[in-house]
Automatic annotation (TrEMBL):
Domain of life assignment: Bacteria
Membership in a protein family: Belongs to the cyclic nucleotide phosphodiesterase class-III family.
Annotated ranges, domain Calcineurin-like phosphoesterase: 3-193
Official protein name in the record: Cyclic 3',5'-adenosine monophosphate phosphodiesterase
UniProt source species: Rubinisphaera italica
GO terms for MF: hydrolase activity; metal ion binding
Gene3D superfamilies for the chain: 3.60.21.10
């Protein structure tokens, strides 16, 4: 059994909610985690002080492998010279020096991708062909039962709601390649509301027999929630075994001062039938 906590969009700086952050720490300590994913936007304005606060938050989480990626807010928006010349300097010095990398867990391979594009698409992000080649190399020749996960900040498919967000440029190209590589799951943030579903909900693709599970987290610790999670905070817990993937979506409740589960989503692993017992 593999347990992964998924947080996103911490937004250290003015939007950060310290009380909610403490609730994340308490919940993480209660769970027996194998890994923690934080899918970008550690800060609001990419300042050194905000990154230091985010790093202190990460260091107080359980001592398990952490998979992190930068978000568009981790790039300086108004410090133009820095954005053009060294946009992720503070992120790389304080949070994680690697931008595209692979993490091996027991029974799973996770590829972290930097979807920020400071010079071409600040808000919507972008995945470039060389990053897709990196995924091909990471996922090639893996044992058949290895869980394959891609983590990026920006969304490859929008949440199917009234917000009607645009997707990353060339997102469909990436999805088609991920399907060919038999990627099981894409994890991300950016939307400030959760969406747990399948790429086939939004894009049929060139292989309509196999979609990819989408796991989007809302903003975990800021007041910038959107859509159905306006003024709410959320995170996800993944439980994976050889037969099923279960994703539990948590919302923070102010009256209880804690995150509590509000929905569970179960997906059979490839080769398992929906009617088989788990």
């Amino acid at each position: 059994m593999l347990h992964i906590l998924h947080c996103s969009d911490l937004h250290f700086g003015p939007p950060y909610l310290p009380r909610v952050g403490e609730a994340v720490q308490r919940l993480a300590a209660e769970l027996q985690l194998d890994s923690i994913v934080v899918s970008g936007d550690f800060t609001q304005r990419a300042t050194q002080e905000q990154f230091i606060q985010a790093k202190e938050f990460l260091d107080r989480l359980p001592d398990v492998p952490k998979i992190v990626v930068p978000g568009n807010h981790d790039v300086p928006l108004y410090r133009v010279v820095e954005r053009l010349n060294d946009p992720l300097r503070n992120y790389r010095e304080i949070i994680e020096d690697r931008l595209d990398y692979t993490v091996e867990l027991e029974g799973a391979t996770i590829v972290a991708l930097n979807s920020t594009a400071p010079k071409s698409s600040i808000s919507n992000g972008r995945i470039f062909p060389e990053q897709l080649d990196f995924c091909k190399q990471a996922f090639i020749d893996l044992p058949e039962k290895t869980l394959k996960i891609v983590v990026a900040h920006h969304h490859f498919a929008p949440a199917p709601d009234y917000e009607r967000d645009s997707t990353m440029p060339k997102a469909k190209r990436a999805i088609d390649i991920f399907v060919d590589l038999k990627v099981d799951m894409i994890m991300g943030g950016h939307l400030h509301r959760a969406y747990i579903g399948n790429t086939l909900d939004l894009y049929a693709g060139r292989n309509r027999d196999r979609g990819i599970i989408i796991v989007q987290s809302g903003t975990t610790t800021s007041y910038r929630g959107r859509g159905r999670e306006k003024e709410k905070n959320s995170l996800n817990l993944l439980r994976v075994d050889s037969r099923m993937i279960q994703i539990t979506h948590y919302i923070y409740f102010h009256e209880h001062d804690r995150f509590e589960p509000v929905s569970r989503h179960s997906f059979p692993r490839p080769g398992m039938r929906f009617y088989e017992q788990t």
